[in-house]
Amino acid sequence: MKNIAITGGTHGNELTGVFLVKKWLLNPKLIERSNFNTTVIHTNKEAIKECRRYIDRDLNRAFSSTLLSSKNSKHYEDRLAKEINKKLGTKGSSNPKMDFIVDLHTTTANMGLSIVVSNQSDITWRVIDYLVHKEPNLKIYRWKGDEEDAFVDSIAPHGFAIEVGAVPQGVLRADLFLETEQLVYHILDFFEKFNNQEVKEKYNKNLTIYDHASLVDYPRDEKNELIAMVHPNRQDRDFELIKKGDPLFLTLEGETINYQEDEPMHGLFINEAAYYEKGFALCLARKVII
Predict the structure, then answer these.
(1) pLDDT at 126
(2) What is the three-class DSSP state of 95?
(3) Cβ contact 12:51 at 8 Å
(4) Residue 98 in contact with residue 4, Cβ under 8 Å?
(5) Cα(40)–Cα(47) distance, rounded to whole angstroms?
(6) Cα–Cα distance measured from residue 82 to residue 115, given in angstroms and rounded to the nearest whole number
(7) Which domains does the chain have, with CATH numbers?
(8) By C-alpha distance, which of 170, 220, 130 is closest to 13?
(9) Are 38 and 185 spatial neighbours (Cβ–Cβ below 8 Å)?
């Protein structure tokens, strides 16, 4: 592994990644290791300036092969994705500029310190195995959500996103900033050891992960307007099991809407602010051992 990239500010109002990249640009020795190069960049500078999630559309859904190959990119983020792909990719290349990309995010949901992984490469999972060894409370979510293969990290052969919360949009929270920073240093330490052939094949006999199952929208009326909110007994209970009959939503009239499925599921990204526009209130996942 010769080149690692750390990206922040893919969503301009998620300040943990923005300020960690700023810190490392000012103090590059913090991310230097002996046997590979580390690149850090702010991905969406215009959104960062305005402290907005994006300018025209979600940059973290703009890296699909279809969008990257399109000759008609009317949105700012579509054009930006092509520039980033040239700088860090190119996607699908046999000789990419970056071997591994770590994209830094925060969430308004109570996700704690977690990784969202959609890359199934062996290297990606070996890094995760090492991180769980170092941080036993780290949660792993295998994403198969609203759009596939369109994240920033998809332009490298290996990589994932770090999600940390709960953090309000546009807020810098020191404790989660420090937790994210330490996790990144673990990643860099892993690659230094990996290149020196000092990494065990497995640190954990098994890994517990949360496997994406479905997306659940808020109850809506015929005008597609919300008529209910996340139930107070469900709020902030990310990664907990939801069983049939458990409260899920609370209508404006005070009526409880319960979970109706026979199969129990775990709730993630519960009441994430950025997902209102995407049309889902939470993700459901199966807790599995791999």
Answers:
(1) 97
(2) coil
(3) yes
(4) yes
(5) 17
(6) 25
(7) 3-205 (3.40.630.10), 213-283 (2.20.25.160)
(8) 170
(9) no
Mean pLDDT of the chain: 96
Q: 36 falls in which pLDDT band (50, 70, 90)? A: very high
pLDDT in tens, 63-85: 999 999 998 888 999 999 999 99
Could you tell me which of 218, 231, 215, 219 has the C-alpha nearest to residue 269? 215
Structure tokens at 258: 């319960």
Paired tokens of 225: 């307007």
DSSP 20: H
Distance CA 250, CA 255 (A): 6
- Asked whether the predicted pLDDT for residue 93 surpasses 80, the reply is yes
Structural tokens at position 60: 């973290």
Whether the per-residue pLDDT at 167 is higher than 70: the answer is: yes
Sheet holding 37-42, edge to edge: 37-42, 3-8, 100-106, 158-165, 112-117, 139-142, 208-216, 282-289, 265-268, 241-242
In angstroms and rounded to an integer, the radius of gyration of the C-alpha atoms of the chain is 19
Mean pLDDT confidence for 246-275? 98
Q: How far apart are CA 16 and CA 167, in angstroms?
A: 9
